[in-house]
Design brief:
One of its GO terms (biological process) is GPI anchor biosynthetic process. The protein is α+β, with helices and mostly antiparallel strands. The protein folds into three domains: 347 residues, 3-Layer(aba) Sandwich (Alkaline Phosphatase, subunit A); 144 residues, no CATH class; 235 residues, Endonuclease/exonuclease/phosphatase (Deoxyribonuclease I, Chain A), CATH 3.60.10. 35% of the residues lie in helices and 21% in strands. The protein has 26 helices and 34 strands. Strand 23, helix 21 and strand 24 form a beta-alpha-beta unit. The chain is elongated. About 4% of the residues have low confidence.
Amino acid sequence: MLSRIGSTLRRWRRRFSRSEWMAHLLGLSTSESTPSDPGLILIQVDGLAYPEFKRAMAKGRLPFMKRLMKKEHYHLERLYPGIPTTTPAVQAELFYGERQIVPAFGFMLHETGELGRMYDPGVAALVEKRLQKKNRNPLLKGGSCYLSLFRAGTEHGEAHFCPADQGWGPALREASPWTVFLLLLTNAWSLVRTGALVVVEFVLALVDCIRGVIQGQDLMRELMFVPTRVAVTILMRELCTIGVKIDIARGLPIIYVNMLGYDEQSHRRGPRSAFAHWVLKGIDDAIGRIWRAAHASDRRHYDVWIFSDHGQEQTIPYEDHYGRSLGDALSDALSELSATPSVHRRKSGHGVQLERARLFGSEWIEKMIPEDESVTGDRNSPLALAALGPLAMLYNVELNSHSRADVARLIVEKAKVPLVLYRANPDERDSPVHGWWRHGPVRLPEDGPKLLGSAHQFPQQSIADMIRLCSHPDAGDFMMYGWCDGQEPPLTFAMENGSHGGAGPNETQAFALMPEDIPPPDPKRGYWRPGELRRTARAYLRGVKPMAVKQRPQRLKTLRVMTYNVHSCRGLDGKLSPQRIARVIARYQPDVVALQELDVMRERSGSLDQAERLARLLAMDVHFQPALHMEEERYGDAILTHLPVRLVKKGILPGPPPGQSTLFNPAADEPRGAVWVEVQHNGQKLHIFNTHLGLSKGERLRQVDALLGPEWLGHPNCDGAKILLGDFNTLPNSAECRRLAGHLRDAQVQAPNHSPQGTFFSRMPTLRIDHVYVSPNIDVKGVLVPQTELTRQASDHLPLIVDIELPGGES
């Protein structure tokens, strides 16, 4: 009944939902999905390193994500993005499963021989064609994306603020004035909120501008950054958040959104700057709004995964450090090579940060930041330089009579580049990788550890990627890194104070904030790769989601039991989902689970054997007791455990007293049963009884007497430690519970430093009708009644979890 009321309320809420109205006004299609179908939202926080995430958490900049970790069972893991540590490389691996699709953010395309950057629509389209040839199963097929460099399988109009489709899709651009007016009217509060944030951010941007000028920055460059900072930091974030919420209302199977604001500020002022960390608070708030919309969805059962694509190093521009550009330094350094021309370099006077504002697709942005085709050096020169971030590449070097080692040495000694790598024979993909740094020649992989230093989190993986990168078709003849061990400060070849793209210890440490029951591919290894996120996401969308039933600490004679009325696996939101119930159980790692109200082969729940399904998802043995049996349909209770188990007895308990009227209580005619198993734990046996008592007092008293009698708890073979648990449908001060208390102890009362908590109903758990009773020789160590968004939705009851210690046990 409660689930029906909840479903009705949610239907009415959908009718008045702004996101629903916006989707309808824009003529956007909705997904033909059922409420229990899986959906996935991937939120990328661009540029936020694992150490900076923890620092921001400690400073209180991420309150919602802290809540996810504290109350919603999310766990923080490292993510190794690979090298180059750039967004296009990570997105290619995430969306298509292809590593190192590009050698850097800016590079020379071997198809055209021209220098390009990944924000150029033509370059992004060409790279995606390469990906499509390699893999025809993009991750975002049927979904949508925001601020992605690739479409990744999204249909026309579902890629927003992307290089190939600037602006917010054709639906909004083609909307009538009347539609636009209604959209503005229905989102008046969001517009007011966004306007206020824009004003605040504009003031902060002006302060930042003044500070930059005082520190010697170019005035015009600082002024140009003010509107683009506001655009990228606030407007893009708010528009993307609104768009994602619309797509959730539509029920799209997968949605990807990239939050750019922190990366923008980190490039500008550095990853540790107060301005960069200030932006994180707004990103955290946007993630909270998306997460709440996802969990309120009527069309799908959404999961939300949060991660970053790379970190950033606190750097100093090469030009500021040495007083000249890298191109000029290389021209001088290589002057010993006979007939060496000057270096041809496509140069952005504005930087990647300002180019991002073009993703709005607005004409005023295009006029303010025109395409910059300026170059340094001779346009007819074959020698070319791609330098954007801490990784630069030199192309078309004519060696003449000099060796490649001579060129690398000159670049290090005269141009002061920290590290240069090259293939010994560029025509052979597997030829050895050599290089030069301040201490002389190096060879990979042998000298890799000393190049990266002992503090590097991923030395072996980074060295392997640096070796492979030298053979990339678009890589330069010489790969120049602005950082290696001992280089202080780290250098970047762009005009920025925060940088990424190379092999630095922070830029190679991204993070993944995942639900606890989505384990990393190798828990012992303890980190993700983007390709592993892709495989896990595809499995999740297929309904093959792994349940992380972690091994509990091996504490002698100590174990965890759980009782849980699962309401036929139908939640208060009306969604039928055994997977969700399994997810609740998996999060708390019980040794024994007593479940009530399970359907087996019932038409109302999809003719699924819920007991068997839950046991398979949780890798446990199951013993099911059908209290109700109608032809092939059954309904009852079960015990699941991973411990050695033996079924002792299962059966039906007495019904209402003879002559008791059921006219006004038809449910009183429902049979009630119990199941008794014996489990072995560290050589000791434990008797466990699971039951679901009736609705009338007289019926429950008869059932309690039967359970305490010689056929159940009073049986001669029921010796030693014993537990009776389940849904008793009665309060602790009732006659039934008082009668039980004469033989057993209430675990919630016995638990140290614990105030008994209610379990029903899950949204407002004021009634304590689910109980765990233990024999006097069992020591109760702790009790938990988890109240998370998941447990409040999954059933009309909350689970009750008790940690116990058997007689003679050690903690």
